[in-house]
Amino acid sequence: MTDLLTLLPVATAALRRRKAAFAGSYLALTLGVTLIATTGVLLSNTAGDDSPLGAPSLHKVLTFSAGMAAFVAVFVVASTFAFAVAQRRQETALLRAVGATPRQVRLLVLGEAAVVALAAAVSGCLLSLPAAPALAAWLVDLGAAPAGFTARPAVAPMLLAAAVGLLVALAGAFAAAVRAGGVRPVAALGEAAVDRGGMTPVRWVCAGLQALGLVGTVGYYLLAPSLPPAPGGGDQVGDPQFATQWVMAADLMAIVTLSLVAPLLVPHLVRLFTVPLRWTVGAPALLARQNALTAVRRTVSTATPAFLVVALLGTALGSTAAFADAMTAQTRAATAARYVLRPGAAPLPADAANRLAAAQPGLRATATVSTVITGLGADAAAFADRSEDSEATVPSAATVVDGPLPDALALPAVQGSATDLHGATLAASTDQVRGHGWHLGDQVNLRLADDTVVSLKLVLVFRTQLSLDEVLLAGDGVAGHLGAAHPGAVYLSGRPADLLRGLLTDARQPGPDPGAHYAWIATSTILGPALLYALIAIVNTMVMSAADRRRDFTTLRLAGGLRRQVVAMVAVEAVLVVATAAVLALAVTVVTQLGTIALLNHRILAGQTSVALRLPWGPLAAGVAACLVLAVPAGVVPAWLAVGRRADRG
């Protein structure tokens, strides 16, 4: 209690003197909690969405969107609170010099952070109430959610978001407070004047653990195909259709790892970028260079949001483009037909294949129909149990092949033959076969869409395709059990005379795979809110940094510096910050994209076809431009206002 009474006037004075820092921390956490709570509410609202595995699902996309939101929010909030504490090094050094104990310094910093974090957590939860419906409306406009989708208030996600925000803010402040309180008074004063470091022992440990986690994750994923399958079927690690999720996880871990070692790299990058400035006669450029080199923590903290924006654009959009290219190339390689007829504005007739073949002698036509089956591979006795926990109620996506499979698709067969897919038979991917422990010739039980339970013979095992269901059923074996299902595609050996109001595609020039379109929508849904938050964080951090340097600006004016020179110095510093962030982001993008392309070519496409490395230069350039547009004014305007006052007021 005595400590609290002693520190209360100090905390009050700090609040008055550092309004911008407190306001910046409050804004970062408020928006972070809003982001997590908003995506959490939508995720909670879509719980129970039982879309089949591999099929588009709003709940699955929102799961990744919530994860990405939490990742970015945690990253920015922790960085902002640590930055706000680090800005007070001179203040804490003076406190230590006049007799404050390390415990009192930690108590002061954590108490202030707790008050700000608590207020921000409440504000963020309240803001999520209007933000969730707004995000739902954006998802509908984007095409990621069905018409009429909206958000309903949910308390649990908001409480969870508030708890996460509080913990992260206090953790970020605690790490900086421990460091500030543990330094001896004389050393603290010296360190407050010049900050050349940034790799604390805690940061080294975190970077090492993160690097080990990244190596372990990638290693486990690469070794998974040689490991025994998990009990109970299902092989998500070895399933190429889940590869995007593993790639995204690896991308995020790479981003975190590089950001943790950024203090080691930033000084070298700044020196490299400012080599031409060493021969300039202008004072602003030289001062900007020295400021960036002697305030490494400030440079790293202000570069973090920009690094996040550019790195996420490069890795996420690059991976999406790579998988889209792979899907298109694989679909083209696996298509045996000459033309593919797909539905236009209206569905294709249920008997489209028969009508087209009958109307044009010699034309071979095979239709494919999407359906949902349940209980794939379950024991016959299990189908009597209709509870949610029963293995007989687990849904799976399947494709019914109505006609000769070899006329439509040239699937890479591992066992069996495509010509045997007729009658009471089915074909399955290698991952399904491995996950269930099937063998060629086994009888596989499943329930069809009309509730009929059938037992089908496994006649073909094909290598898993990115944009094809992993189970194929023979059309003549399930005829009469599909209801009013319409073909999703009709594969043709020649150009038909009647298109049945459908869209005809030349299989030699198919264009982008239809599945890639949804992949881009999903990526936009996952990245959109997180990127918006990171862009706001750029402005927030730059304003915090510039507002805290008012005394420095005044000193420069008293030393004879002109107002435009001070503003030019800040502008050059902002450009250096963005340039540093862009180079680090480009490095992580190149590394992750090389890994993604290697994964696609050597494990997923595996000789069927291949894709080339294609860095997303357009999104990278757009991200850098957006960061510059935001960062430069956000640094220059506060500096302009600060030096516009009388110099002796600083």
TrEMBL record:
Domain named ABC3 transporter permease C-terminal: residues: 65-180, 530-643
Transmembrane annotation, as ranges: 21-43, 63-86, 107-140, 160-181, 202-223, 243-266, 306-324, 518-546, 567-600, 620-643
Localisation: Cell membrane
Bilayer disposition of the protein: Multi-pass membrane protein
InterPro entries hit by this protein: ABC3_permease_C (IPR003838), Macrolide_Exporter_MacB (IPR050250)
Main location: membrane
Pfam families registered for this protein in UniProt: FtsX (PF02687)
Record keyword Repeat present: no
GO molecular function: transmembrane transporter activity
Keywords: Cell membrane, Membrane, Transmembrane, Transmembrane helix
Domain of life: Bacteria
GO annotation, cellular component aspect: plasma membrane
Name of this chain's protein: FtsX-like permease family protein
Species this chain originates from: Kitasatospora acidiphila
Lineage: Bacteria, Bacillati, Actinomycetota, Actinomycetes, Kitasatosporales
